[in-house]
């Protein structure tokens, strides 16, 4: 799987370099955070086709308790214009012994299609100590009424498996800097996959409640609780391996972005 | 005095330290005439005459205690005050000592199009190491300013005041004359600011609603009203606390380049009449200005004399100018207090009989909250949606309706590409670049603005502005150009009619044509709309005495109109003067041919 990760990073870098090169001749122009590159833009009346580049690690946390302590990450990065972006997503659970569980990397093309909605399509690869699969991905990411962030993504694997992932989160401002974030992620599968130890139907839920303090917008330590639930056959697979079907864990980590 | 720098030799690449926090010695202000009095305080020198050499280069600045590089002129931030005389032909040799292209735009000055200084429209810009010589006749008098029109250089300090002395003498009497140039400074790079806004549009808003304000509202308005209010804003995915995109969280607000602690000071002797030339040279800030203890007599707006009107406070939109006369009677210090519109900070200076004095600094007003009127939904009952009552309301007395058939204006209203305009609200719909369409835009010229109405002070309103002399062009407009100010806050995209600059076609005006521009603000932000090269005659009910302006601050949910005579050919920039709105698309070309 590491080859694939390298590919992902290389494609991102390649895209960035290509865009930066293209910029030296015409629009669009790339704006990197903290850089002075925008100043080179002296011969244009406006810069509304600029390329921006951001990444966020929403979760980078230790999880303790429930017999499944480890490290969990979840992040996204994108580069592009208002309408067209290359979007990367990565999440997973690193176990104590160096194994990875439920890891997923996605590389997507993202297109702004309405006021608060982006359409995304691309590839997902699993990153797991067990069997990993490669999936075609098609989904939407947006901002729902009342400021709920959500993602709905459907997947079709090389082995004929279909999957659906729902994710949502909400920022509740207790003060201007102290923010409580409930979030939930649910995975559904069309049929059981022994290799990946998942059953058909609702397979698992990862929900959390994290209280972060924004020392700055881009750097916020947090504490919270996470609930991991496995259902149906997936729960049975877990129990067979001596794991509980559900766990409530204490989490602590840092949310950061650039 | 010829136009060579007074304070500095034009030493190439020389970096002058602009001391921000150091104490400022207020030199003894000299009485009238202007050129001596202006030179008094602070480091901003005045250059006067007909020939000027301006060198744009990096300048070391320290506004906050942390050293940063700014961009200045002749080693100065702000750039030197330029003092011209009406009717003179001025020559300005502008040399670029930066490593990137630059430009100077003479804001509000009626130059020929090729002297207007907008890269890509007027000229190619000034390449590093090169000198571009501007030369034009100055056909007007009043207070104006100049600034870079390249990238984000204006945010980095490239702006200065222009004072043009009238040939026929001043319409007002005054003993002293000061420029009060307001601006905003950030230690962050402007590119970082806009990049932050693209990722998190409320990045700089630390005045948002919280759990605490929810319960405070429940106590005040009741649970039902509070919940339905939250649902309403939540449905629109907008925040009523969104007053300014960039705030005091990163900005230090400056008076003549001085942060509040440095206390820029202007001197007076009790009983004297002091003319203060307020210029909003900020990149992204609107200021509410007052001098507690003094009445402000507004005598000029955007360089043009108006009937004096006495107020306590003025809202000055980005790029606007107002000249006021004050007459401090007591031997005391008075604070020039300029709050940012979102109350996240203030710029401050002092009027004092001696240097080193400080007046009381008032507390910031409470943070304002937007209402449904700011969404263009004033008093909207859903049954009458799509009706035209909003438009009727907006028809103003000074609109010369008798002189023009309604049919003419509707028929000749240009249609935006890809958009059939059935009415003024037309078929503009929400989309990637439009997060709101004002269903019931209102005439709001009689309002002072968000956070000002009913604050207990007499605040200047656009309906207070009456020109001292009637307008030059008596013709009624032959057609109407309706433009929507649009945006999507969540994506930080801005534009006209749902299109960014890069997606839009120029607006064509025939040479010497008289047209009416109608602006409908569909966003919940104020937009200071600036038309280069031609006057914007605001239709505020004063008929022939409507004020001539170069920048018009359009309130959220507002519909207003102004007349334009296309008497100068060429390619002109037309844009929101909030720098980050302009660069992110709220920009059009107006082509007069």
Globally, the shape of chain B reads: globular
- Which structural class matches the secondary elements of chain B? mainly beta
Tally of contiguous helical segments of chain B: 7
Oligomeric state of this protein: heterodimer
In short:
The complex is a heterodimer of chains A (258) and B (593). Chain A has 258 residues and is mainly β. Chain A has helices at 2-25, 232-240, and strands at residues 30-31, 51-64, 70-80, 84-95, 100-114, 117-127, 134-144, 148-157, 162-169, 172-173, 178-189, 201-213, 219-230, 246-257.
Task: Report on this structure.
Chain A has helices at 2-25, 232-240, and strands at 30-31, 51-64, 70-80, 84-95, 100-114, 117-127, 134-144, 148-157, 162-169, 172-173, 178-189, 201-213, 219-230, 246-257. Residues 1-29 and 32-43 of chain A have low confidence and may be disordered. In chain A, a hairpin with a 2-residue loop joins strand 5 and strand 6 (117-127). Chain A is globular. By secondary structure, chain A is mainly beta. Chain A starts with a helix and ends with a strand. With 593 residues, chain B is mostly beta strands. The longest helix of chain B is centred in the middle third of the chain and has 14 residues, at 223-236. Chain B starts with 17 loop residues before the first strand and ends with a strand. The chains are: A mainly beta (258), B mainly beta (593). At the A-B interface, strand 2, strand 5 and strand 10 of A face helix 2 and helix 4 of B.
List the helices and strands and how they pair.
The complex is a heterodimer of chains A (258) and B (593).
Chain A: H1 2-25, E1 30-31, E2 51-64, E3 70-80, E4 84-95, E5 100-114, E6 117-127, E7 134-144, E8 148-157, E9 162-169, E10 172-173, E11 178-189, E12 201-213, E13 219-230, H2 232-240, E14 246-257
Parallel strand pairs in A: 1-2
Antiparallel strand pairs in A: 2-3, 2-14, 3-4, 4-5, 5-6, 6-7, 7-8, 8-9, 9-11, 10-11, 11-12, 12-13, 13-14
Chain B: E1 18-19, H1 34-38, E2 46-48, E3 51-62, E4 68-73, E5 79-85, E6 89-96, E7 105-107, E8 131-137, E9 142-147, E10 159-165, E11 176-186, H2 190-199, H3 211-221, H4 223-236, E12 251-255, E13 264-267, E14 274-280, E15 287-290, E16 296-301, E17 304-311, E18 313-316, E19 321-326, E20 334-340, E21 346-352, H5 389-394, H6 406-412, E22 479-488, E23 493-496, E24 507-509, E25 514-521, E26 527-531, E27 536-538, E28 548-549, E29 551-554, E30 559-565, E31 570-576, H7 579-583, E32 587-592
Parallel strand pairs in B: 1-3, 2-5, 3-6, 5-10, 11-14, 13-21, 22-25, 24-32
Antiparallel strand pairs in B: 3-4, 6-8, 7-9, 9-10, 11-12, 14-19, 15-18, 15-20, 16-17, 16-19, 20-21, 22-23, 25-30, 26-29, 26-31, 27-28, 27-30, 31-32
